[in-house]
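2024-03-11 09:14:02 DEBUG pipeline.ingest accepted 1 chain
2024-03-11 09:14:02 DEBUG pipeline.ingest length=155
2024-03-11 09:14:03 DEBUG pipeline.predict start
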Amino acid sequence: MLAPCLHGRVRYGCTEYAGMDGCHIFSVCVDGKTVKRFSWETVNTYFIKNRYKPESPCTGVSGYWDGFQALFEKYPPEKRTEYTDSEFCDALKAYRNQSIPESIASENPIVRMFAVLDRRIGKRTLDKIQDSIGDQPEWLRFFYLLRMEAETDLS
């Protein structure tokens, strides 16, 4: 579903390591460089970096992960800039099962990422959403600008 102007530039990847209990690392690469990763580890690092901690103290590995789940409820995807592999998959499923106008207006930034890279978005829609670039999370602005610049380069 990738826009023709992005063919050969944007690639989605998935890595699974032995012993990861079914967890994956999804990545989006642009011009051969990883620009966004989706995994439990990226979210864990995000919580640690921003000093988000569970409200009740947790001890041991299982206690840590119980508290980690509470952070997910407190900071849903719309309030974060990092996402898990399952959130990536859920967003992909939502995007694939709804219209482009619904996807580009979605509250979920991952769904909006898929939509802005989609070949079904034309120049008129890109013109309309250009004013909303500043409202997007910084990581998502990159994809909006990438698409708009790629379209401009074809003109």
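2024-03-11 09:14:41 DEBUG pipeline.report Residues 138-154 form the longest helix (17 residues).
2024-03-11 09:14:41 DEBUG pipeline.predict end
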